[in-house]
Amino acid sequence: MSRYTVALAGNPNTGKSTLFNTLTGLRQHTGNWAGKTVMMAEGEFSYDKTTFRMIDLPGTYSLYSNSTDEEVARDYIIFEKPDVTIVVLDATSLERNLNLALQVLEMTNRAVVCINLIDEAKRLGVRIDLQKIEQRLGVPTVAISARNRIGIDKLLKQVKLVASGQINPHPIHIQYSDEIERKLAELEPSIRENLGSQYPTRWIALRLLDGDESLLSSLKKRMNEVTPDSVREVASYGRTACH
Amino acid sequence: MAEPLATNASDPLDTLLSKARTLADGETVRDGIVSDIYRTTRDICAESVHYEDKKKLQSTYRLDKIVTSPIWGFPIMLAILGAVFWITIAGANVPSQMIFRFFAIVEGYITAGFQALHAPDWLHGVLVLGFFRGTSWVVSVMLPPMAIFFPVFALLENFGYLPRVAFNMDRLFKKSGGHGKQALTMSMGFGCNAAAILSTRIIESPRERMLAILTNNFVPCNGRWPTLILLSSLFMAAGVASGLQTLATASVVMGMVMIGIVVTLTVSWVLSKTALRGVPTHYTLELPPYRRPQIWKTILLSSKEKSLNVLMRAIIVAAPAGVITWILGNVFVGGDSILNHMAAFFDPFAHAIGLDGFIIMAFILGLPANEVVLPILLMGYMSSGAMVDADGLDNIKEIFLQHGWTWLTALNMMLFSLLHYPCGTTLYNIYKETKSTKWTILSAVIPLGIAIAVTFVTAQLVRAFGWV
C-alpha cells in the first residue's frame, strides 16, 4: 500500500479545517474567522487503497513571509515537499483567493486547486467556468463543498493522480515585467549551480530579488541540520493547542 | 526532505543574495511581482467567473452595516455578550441543583454501605468526604454552565461574529499602540489563553506581537469562566429582586469582561509608551461572510472538546487534591490542622487584598490550570470539618459564608482570577514563542502586580467606606 503526503494551503477562512475534518474524520475545531489555525494539524485518510497523510497548514494571504504563520506554510511546501498540495479557494471570493494559488503554483507543480463553498457561490449567483480555470492554471481544478460533502470524490481522484505521478501538471507561468524577467534570467543559472534542482529555481530567484531574508535563513538552517524542525511544529491529532 | 549539502554551503547562499541585491538595485521588486500576480488573477477571473447579480453577493454583508457601525457596534456587542451570559446563568441553575441532589443521594448510599461494613471513620473521610464529595461538587458546579456557555459561544464563532468584534475593537487597539489583530488574539483568549498565545503569530511586527502576548491573560479563559459565573451568581445578585437576579449576575460577569478589556488596553498603552515603544502598523482585516453554523455539529463538538476537556482536567486534579486536602485538614499539629497552619501563613497578606489564606493557596496550587482553583478552594474549606446542612447550591454559599466570606471576598476573588498570572501551559507557550526568560517572567509578574494592586485598592476602599 503506497503512502502519500498531502498539504492543505489556502487563504484564512476558506474551509481548510472543514475539509481536513471531512477527509480525516478528525475533529479539528473550526471557526468562521481568519487565523484560527496557527499550528499545523495532522491526520490520515485512505482512498482507493492508498493512505494519505494530511497536513492542515495555517491559512495565509500570501507566502511572502510577512509573519510566522506564512513562514511555517511556505517552509512546509518548499522543504517538506508534500506529494500534493491542495490549494483551497473560497468560491465566493475567487479573485482574491487565486493570488495565493498562483504563489503556490510557482513553488510546486504537484498541486490540485480545490474551489470550496461552491454551493454557497451558486446560491449567491456566482457562476464559475471550472474548465476554463483549470485550463489557465494548468493543474487539476475541482469544485467542492466540504461541509456538505459535495465533490469530495472527484477531489480525491485528482489528488491521487497527481500524488502517484499519473498526472504531471504544468502550471501557469506568470509573466512578469521585462525588467523582472531579465533579472530572473540572470539569477537563475547561479541558483541552479549552488542549490541544484531540489528547489523551484524561478521561485527562489523571485524571493531573493525580493530580499526575502527569512527564506535565506531557513535555507541555511536546512543545509546545516538533518532533522527539519518543522516536523516538531505539528500538533497532535485534533488538538490545536491546549484544550 | 532537505538533502544536506556540503556544510559550508551557506557561503554561496550569501553570495547569491548579494548578487540578487545588486540586481534589485535597491528598488522594491515586491510591488512589481504582486501587481503582475494580481493582473494574472484578474485575467483568469474575467473570463471564467460570472456574477448574475453583484448585489446578491453583497447582501451577506448587509448585516455588517449595523453590527460594525460606529453607533450600534458596541451596544450590540455588549447585548450579545450579555445575552450569552444570561442564557448560561439562567439555564445552569436547575441542572446544577439536580446533579447536586443526585450525587447527595448516591453519597447517602455509599455512607450507609461504609457503616454496614463498619469501615473506620478516616477511610470514610478520605474516600467519601474528600474524594467523592469533592469530585461531585466540581461536576455539579462546573458542568452545567460550561455545557451551555461553550456551545453558545462556538455558534457565535462559527456564524462569523468574532471578526466583527475585532473590527469594532480595532480602533481602540490602534489608539493604545497595539496591532488591530490584537483584537482577534484577545477574542481567542476568551476560549483559551494558551492557544491565543500561539495565535499571536498572525501579527507581523514583533513589538506588537509582544504586546498581544503580554496582555492576553486579561481576558477570562475556559478555566476561569466557571469561577466568575459561580461567584457572581452566589454573591453578586443577593440584594436584587428575584426576577432580576439572573440579569444582575450576567451584568456582573459582563462587567468583569469589560474590566479585563480596559486593563488590556491600558497595559498595551503603557507598554507601548515605555518598554515597547513604536507606532502601530497598518493591516487589513477580513470580514468573512456570515455562515449558518452547523448547529448540532457545533454543539456536539464544543461539548466534547471544551466542556468535557475542562471538566476532565478539573476532576483529574480535584480528585487527588480532595484526598490530600482532607488529610492536610485532618492531621493536627500543635492543636491545629496542617491546612489551617498553611492558610494562616498567607492570611495577613490575603486579608489586605480582601481574600483569605485558603484562596491564596488555591491560586498558587492552581498554577497548572485555572480550572482547579475553585475545586481546591472548596475542598480546603470542606476538609476543615464544616458541617453543611443546606441543600443544593446553597450548600456552597453556606461554606463560603462560614469562612467569613462577604461580597467583597467574592468580588476580589473574581478580580484576582481575572487579572492574576496566566496558567502554566500559557506561560510555557509564551516561553516557546518569545524564547525569552525575561518576557516570560514579565508576562506573569505584570498581571500579578496589577491583580494585587487592584484587589488591594478595592478592599481598602470598601472597608474605608464601611460597606462590609
Automatic annotation (TrEMBL), chain A:
Keywords, alphabetical: GTP-binding, Nucleotide-binding
Stored Pfam families: FeoB_Cyto (PF17910), FeoB_N (PF02421)
Matches recorded under CDD domains: FeoB
Record flagged with keyword Iron-sulfur: no
Domain (FeoB-type G): residue spans on this chain: 3-165
Residues making up the signal peptide according to the UniProt record: none
PANTHER family: FE(2+) TRANSPORTER FEOB, FERROUS IRON TRANSPORT PROTEIN B
The protein's name in its UniProt record: 50S ribosome-binding GTPase
Source organism (scientific name): Paenibacillus profundus
Automatic annotation (TrEMBL), chain B:
Transmembrane found in the keyword field: yes
Transmembrane segments annotated in the record for this chain: 71-92, 99-117, 137-162, 223-244, 251-271, 310-333, 345-366, 372-388, 400-421, 441-462
A Pfam cross-reference name: Gate
Span of domain Nucleoside transporter/FeoB GTPase Gate: 140-230, 312-435
Domain Ferrous iron transport protein B C-terminal: 253-299
Keywords: Membrane, Transmembrane, Transmembrane helix
Annotated protein name in UniProt: Ferrous iron transporter B
Species for this entry: Paenibacillus profundus
